[in-house]
Amino acid sequence: MSHADIPSMGPERTPAGTKVKQVQGLFDRVAKRYDAMNTILSLGIHHVWKRTAMRLLSLGPGDWLIDVCGGTGDLALLSAKHVGNSGRVILYDMNRAMIEAGRPRIERSPSRDRIELVLGDAEKISFQDNCFDAAMVGFGIRNLGHMERGLREMYRVIKPGGKALCLEFSNPPSPLFRSVYDFYSFHVIPLLGSILAGSREAYSYLTESIRVFSSPEELAAMMRDIGFRNVLYRRLTRGIATIHLGDK
Ligand SMILES: C[S@@+](CC[C@H](N)C(=O)[O-])C[C@H]1O[C@@H](n2cnc3c(N)ncnc32)[C@H](O)[C@@H]1O
Questions:
Q1: Does the Cβ of 102 fall within 6 Å of ligand 1?
Q2: Among 60, 113, 183, 245, which one is most buried in terms of CB atoms within 10 A?
Q3: Which residues make Cβ contacts (< 8 Å) with residue 83, sequence separation at least 6?
Q4: Where do the domains of the chain lie, and which CATH numbers do they carry?
Q5: How far, in Å, CA of 22 to CA of 146, rounded?
Q6: Whose CA is nearest to atom 25 of ligand 1?
Q7: Buried (b) or exposed (e) across 118-132, using 16+ Cβ within 10 A?
Q8: Relative to the CA of 99, which ligand 1 atom is closest?
Q9: Would you call 137 helix, strand, or coil by DSSP?
Q10: How many helices (H) and strands (E) does the chain have?
């Protein structure tokens, strides 16, 4: 794939089936270096965002949670600490390489017995209706062929009264900050992706897909249309990322 192909992978410009294959190919390639790259490219800030997400989701002992597009398990590991021995966290992802890259860390964790790894498609979640206390998705919704289907599926599997959380990149609203961020995104991130992870394409896709992703207002409106109540969002680090929350 040439660099020039990458912009066409944005959610609004590529047929959904093609996008799924391309996205999965990218995660196959970067899986082993995914965690280290996240930390380097975000200067560690993604850990702060993930801890903030956990706080806002306010899980309690005994809760059952599904971590949709769970990848290598950062959010699953954090949430497993909160659900106690009677709770469960399902790390749900369609990419075997990502799950396998995260497996050793999960197996070393004291919370390992609370986490189950399930391979599956976020647009067709392989669980019954109304069976989780909460569902979350971290940096995954943007990658789906049909984002709305993924959110509907999260809504379907949580119980009435349950909560959903979406943590995703977004476009900073301040033009000044955005110009600095754009320089970093379009020049530094692809370069580091090529040097450190051996894939300029994967990291060009990351920045392109953020640019064409829905605004926080649009995502909130989509959640309300699906049926989520009390939808709210909170921008993080000047709007580089945003957390959406909603109740069923
Ligand atoms: C950027 S990673 C995020 C991983 C993790 N949630 C985190 O915050 O670090 C996106 C993940 O979404 C997964 N993914 C993309 N499309 C998916 C789908 N249709 N169903 C399930 N997982 C999917 C990818 O395999 C990848 O592991």
A1: no
A2: 245
A3: 59, 60, 61, 62, 63, 64, 65, 89, 114
A4: 3-247 (3.40.50.150)
A5: 14
A6: 95
A7: beebbbebebeeeeb
A8: 27
A9: strand
A10: 10, 7
pLDDT digits (tens, 9 = 90+) for 91-119: 999 999 999 999 999 999 999 999 999 99
Q: At what angle do helices 74-83 and 96-108 cross, to 10 degrees?
A: 40
Whether the full predicted model's pTM is greater than 0.85, yes or no, is: yes
Mutate to test the pocket of ligand 1, among 34, 95, 243 (most ligand atoms within 8 A of CB): 95
For ligand 1, atom 7, name the residue with the nearest CA.
Answer: 138
Hunting for tokens 């049909």 — which residue is that?
Answer: 146
241 membership: H or E segment, kind and range: strand 241-247
Q: How far apart are the first and last CA of the chain?
A: 41
- From the CA of 158, how far away is ligand 1's center (Å)? 19
Q: Note down pLDDT in tens along the chain; length 248 residues.
A: 222 222 233 334 456 677 788 888 889 989 999 999 999 999 999 999 999 999 999 999 999 999 999 999 999 999 999 999 999 999 999 999 999 999 999 999 999 999 999 999 999 999 999 999 999 999 999 999 899 999 999 999 999 999 999 999 999 999 999 999 999 998 999 999 899 888 888 888 888 888 888 899 999 999 999 999 999 999 999 999 999 999 99
- CA 167 to ligand 1: nearest atom: 8
Indicate which atom in ligand 1 lies nearest the CA of residue 95. Answer: 25
Q: 91 CB under 6 A from ligand 1?
A: no
Residue 135: phi and psi, rounded to 5, are -135, 140
